[in-house]
Amino acid sequence: MGILDLFRRKIKDPELCRLRDLLTIAYASGEMTAKERNTILEIAAKHNISSSKFHQMLEISPDSVQDAYPITKKEKDEYLHELVYLMEVNSKHTMRAVNYVEFIAKKLGYTPQDVHEMIEVVTSSPINNSPQKKPNQWHIKSIRDFTQDEINAVSQAVVVSSQYGNSVQFTMISGGMTYIPIEQNSASVAGEIVDITKAKLLTLEKTGEIDIYRVQI
């Protein structure tokens, strides 16, 4: 083995792999915030990853770390949840971060729909709720029809199911798909074609959280 082969060798370490992915998301917006740093350290501590490993990952190239992902579904769900939670910890995210999470999710066996629904789950969950204080509730901020531009941009809208409930899968004329969960009182079933000229778009708000969307059929 030559010296160049040694340079090209990758480190196979599940702990460094996890830190690599978390740090990549943190730096997706350009700079890691103090809140993101603390969140990564909290996640690391939960998995008994030492702070020295964290600092090691800061010093080495992400490309030097080999993929080493969990095997069980429970561990994969947790891994994806942690990535999304970190992405949303500042109540905002970049498309670059979303794309990276989708990239990792695919390696774990998830679809872009799973990622977007996980984002909805994370952003809809009460954070740091005190047992003595009733958490804020989501309230309807607005209800509107889909605009003509939005209608023209969609080639098909169909109800799809997942472990998080039903969503509308919008197939875009320009390519790609977008998913928006269906409001909980809907009786729609998977496979149902949605006429978005008759559907409504709900915007929900809650103090301290970014707005979320639901489709009313």
Characterize the structure shown:
- The protein starts with a helix and ends with a strand.
- It has two domains: 100 residues, TerB-like; 78 residues, no CATH class.
- The strands form three sheets. It has a three-stranded antiparallel β-sheet.
- It has eight helices and eight strands, in the order αβαααβαααβαβββββ.
- Helix 2 packs antiparallel against helix 3 and helix 2 crosses helix 4.
- The chain is elongated, with a radius of gyration of 20 Å.
- The protein is an alpha+beta fold and 217 residues long.
CATH topology of the largest domain: TerB-like
| Low-confidence runs | 1-8, 126-135
Query: How confident overall, as mean pLDDT?
Result: 83
C-alpha Rg (nearest Å): 20 Å
The oligomerization state is: single chain
> How would you sum up the global shape?
elongated
Name the helix and strand elements from N-terminus to C-terminus, one letter apiece.
HEHHHEHHHEHEEEEE
The portion of residues assigned to helices is 40-55%
Strand content: 15-25%
Largest sheet entry: 3 strands, antiparallel
Order of neighbouring strands in the sheet with most strands: 3-7-8
Any idea what the CATH architecture of the largest domain is?
Answer: Orthogonal Bundle
Got a strand count? Answer: 8
By DSSP (H or I, 4+ residues per run), the number of helices equals 8
- The total tally of domains equals 2
User: Given this structure, which CATH class of the largest domain is correct?
Assistant: Mainly Alpha
Straight-line N-to-C gap: 63 Å
Give the class from helix and strand content and strand pairing: alpha+beta
